[in-house]
Amino acid sequence: MSASSSASRIPVEERLFSLVLALLATEAGLTKNEILSTVQGYRQRFVVSGDNSNLERQFERDKDDIRELGVPLETVESPGQAGNNQNLRYRIPRGDYELPADISFSPEETTLLNLAAMVWREGSLSGDSRRAILKLRSLGVATDDPVLGYAPRLRVRDAAFDPLSAALEKNVIVRFGYLKPGEQDARIRTVAPVALIQHEGRWLLHAEDQDVGSTRNFLLRRIVTPITTTNTHYKPLGPEATQTALTELDEIWRDRQAIVEVEPGSDAATRLGKRRGTAPAVAGSLTLHYSDLDLFADELAGYGPEVLVVSPPELRSAVHDRLIRTAADHG
Q1: Which of 27, 40, 29, 21 shows the shortest CA–CA distance to 149?
Q2: d(CA 137, CA 28)
Q3: Which of 125, 131, 132, 197 is nearest to 164 (CA)?
Q4: Any idea what DSSP says for residue 257?
Q5: pLDDT at 297 > cutoff 90
Q6: Whole-angstrom Cα distance, residue 56 to residue 104?
Q7: Rounded CA gap, 286 and 161, in Å?
Q8: Which fold has domain 161-250?
Q9: Chain segment 136-159, per-residue pLDDT in tens
């Protein structure tokens, strides 16, 4: 996997979070070279003894961004090297970063915070972050282990997420059973993963389907078997493939519109009224956008009598069928 391809899969917020973690991990601070060569989001594009000017400019922008977020990023001159900008050290004083001592929480709030902290510590650092910490130590940079308590772990309900993420890192072809709506049996798909993408709050795998020879999007929740990793490697597509997939999904979302009547003051009116792109139609009706008819039908059916689909007919029929099945299942 090329450095540019690997870096393209790292969101900006993950890079900034990794930078904050690294600067919290050492009391003495890190030089720019140590940051660019070790921190997730930079190291993938760092060139040893090469031109890293673009990466340095990105780091300068990131410094401004985290300062705007209220993170107390400090610049410290190395002892005996005053005025040498190349040896400036960057750090985040933990005492300034943590909550003030005079802030207190109720017992209920403390319980919730402790539960959240347990979840965060359980995941601790990702594999990439652990390797970065080890590399910093190999360079002689002292790191503070308690920083692991600051590192949350992204958890998704879809069991396929982690094995697909690992396959992306190794550029290996995978197989899985995929169950499309209306089908009784899952079909085995053999794909070369391109990217894990999130659209409208749902995770999808953008991949090259080996059976049809073109890219497809696979909703992770419809993968119904464990991911099987093959021994076949592939050449990854460039970052433009991921952007193309997101653009196409947005176009589908914009083109597909539904008009629904909602009960005023209901949960449906509140939730659907706040959806991205929602616009009022006639009195008591909303115009909504969607990308997947079956998923949207599931959502609308969940509101029961609070929602009535006016159009399109296929969506109205899909919601009606779900309500009929629910009534039958409950006698």
Answers
A1: 21
A2: 13
A3: 197
A4: E
A5: yes
A6: 40
A7: 34
A8: SH3 type barrels. (2.30.30)
A9: 555 555 554 444 334 443 444 578
What are the boundaries of each domain within the chain? 3-150, 161-250, 256-329
High-pLDDT (> 90) share of the chain, %? 34
Q: How far apart are CA 323 and CA 140, in angstroms?
A: 64
The domain made up of 256-329 is a member of CATH 2.60.40: no
Matching CATH topology for 161-250 and 256-329?
Answer: no
The DSSP line for 74-125 is EEEPPTT-TT-GGG-EEE--HHHHSPPTT----HHHHHHHHHHHHHHHHH-S
**Does residue 5 have a pLDDT over 50?**
no
Q: How distant is the alpha carbon of residue 278 from its chain centre?
A: 24
Q: Which helix (H) or strand (E) holds 26?
A: none
In the block, residue with structure tokens 């991205």: 276
* pLDDT mean over 16-38: 86
